[in-house]
TrEMBL record:
This is NTP transferase domain-containing protein. It comes from Gemmobacter fulvus. GO terms for molecular function: ATP binding; glucose-1-phosphate adenylyltransferase activity. Keywords: ATP-binding, Carbohydrate metabolism, Glycogen biosynthesis, Glycogen metabolism, Nucleotide-binding, Nucleotidyltransferase, Plasmid, Transferase. GO terms for biological process: glycogen biosynthetic process.
Length: 406
């Protein structure tokens, strides 16, 4: 789908390909109905907004967003907020089944690039910027593109070595030539590691993709198939920028990463939050409807206390959120205690619920990770309410006892 827009592209020789079709299986119920890049982040933003804002600020005028898994929410969001900010004819949604003509769509990220190669070549692109649509990152891609052009490499890999940088390790020489790609770093900080952002020479990429498509042993993945080919041909270089401090970067691939990244932005954001074109003021982490039940809110050190509007003199009526995130539409009742929890969008947490203090109880009703993040959704709460015995009122208990005595 092409959208006619307004201004000429700032960089006509670069086409950006956004990989936004992953299933996000490790986010479980959060991605059961929508693609991972469409997940809420920092209020009414979505994960994909970071990538789209980076591309816009970097002056990239032609963007192809490749979608596949549960694309409806993502496509609607992109059309509403981002399509109109790119150049005339510069925005394209490339849904897998429609581009490939197969119901299953793309079969690997290398095939995403190959299937969209005709559109890339038709745009006259000399290089292709490939970036994931679910990275939390604030980045100007122009210095990366300039470094790639100066090197004449087949591909330039943006690498990170900061505290949050976990991914495929890169071994490089002093001149930046990539010598080897290692296993994924087990712990953050074991850099440099690949950030999932690459700039390819279009001709080199086209040749590599066509050769890969003919290889029956290939998994047709950019990082596992195309990059090793570039390393073997001494055609890959690494670039980490010239900043004194590594930029903030997170790959949102697990419930733990999703929760922790959102907490990073709750008080003192480590990087710019993307501004949504056409949006006014993104909502806070929780809906304003909570104001009907709560008055004073105290936030300190990742702990949020909410005083109820009524009966605030009763400590049991206060709500406490410790290291927890409430997605848009979520509501918290008085007396709730949440520790390391994610409350799903639109989920109403009932009065007095305690989450995150008893691992066995959490795992019985909710989804709990090994690191202690607990996901709470409407469906989980409904199952819990249906399976748990209902409290018996004092009147009913008295009538039951009287009948038993007769």
């Amino acid at each position: 789908m092409l959208i006619s827009l307004h201004r000429a592209p700032a960089e006509p020789t670069t086409v950006a390909l956004v990989l936004a079709g992953g299933q996000g299986t490790r986010l479980h119920e959060l991605t059961a109905r929508e693609a991972k890049p469409a997940l809420w982040f920092a209020g009414r933003r979505r994960l994909v907004d970071f990538t789209m804002a980076n591309l816009h600020r970097s002056g990239i005028g032609r963007v192809i967003v490749a979608t596949q898994s549960r694309p409806a929410t993502l496509s609607r969001h992109l059309m509403q907020h981002w399509a109109s900010v790119f150049a005339d004819g510069g925005f394209r949604l490339a849904e897998g089944p429609l581009v490939t003509g197969r119901a299953e769509g793309y079969r690997g990220t290398a095939e995403v690039a190959l299937a969209n190669l005709p559109a890339i070549e038709a745009a006259g692109a000399t290089e292709v910027l490939i970036v994931a649509g679910d990275l939390v990152q604030d980045m100007d891609y122009q210095p990366l593109i300039a470094a790639h052009r100066a090197s004449a490499a087949g591909v330039t890999i943006l690498a990170h070595s900061g505290a949050n940088a976990a991914g495929t390790r890169i071994e490089a020489g002093e001149n930046g030539l990539v010598l080897a790609l290692g296993q994924s770093a087990a712990q953050p900080g074991q850099g440099p590691v690949s950030s999932g952002v690459y700039v390819f020479d279009t001709r080199w990429l086209a040749d590599a993709l066509r050769q890969d498509a003919q290889d029956p042993a290939s998994v047709h993945d950019i990082e596992r198939s195309i990059l090793p080919r570039a390393v073997a041909e001494a055609a890959a270089q690494v670039w980490q920028g010239d900043m004194a401090e590594p930029p903030y970067w997170r790959d949102i691939d697990t419930l733990d990463a999703y929760r922790l990244a959102q907490l990073d932005f709750m008080s003192n954001p480590p990087c710019r939050l993307p501004a949504l074109p056409g949006a006014f003021h993104p909502a806070a982490m929780t809906e304003s409807s909570d104001l009907l039940q709560f008055g004073l809110r105290l936030v300190s050190g990742g702990i949020e206390l909410r005083a109820p509007r009524w009966q605030a003199d009763k400590p049991s009526r206060w709500a406490m959120l410790d290291g927890s995130v409430v997605l848009p539409g979520g509501r918290i009742a008085p007396g709730v205690r949440l520790t390391q929890a994610i409350v799903g969008a639109g989920t109403v947490v009932p009065e007095g619920l305690v989450v995150g203090e008893d691992p066995d109880e959490d795992a019985r009703w909710f989804r709990r990770t090994d690191q202690g993040t607990v996901l709470v959704t409407t469906q989980m709460l409904a199952r819990r309410a249906a399976d748990r015995p209902r409290p018996v009122s004092g009147i009913v208990r008295a009538l039951t006892q009287r009948r038993a005595a007769l």
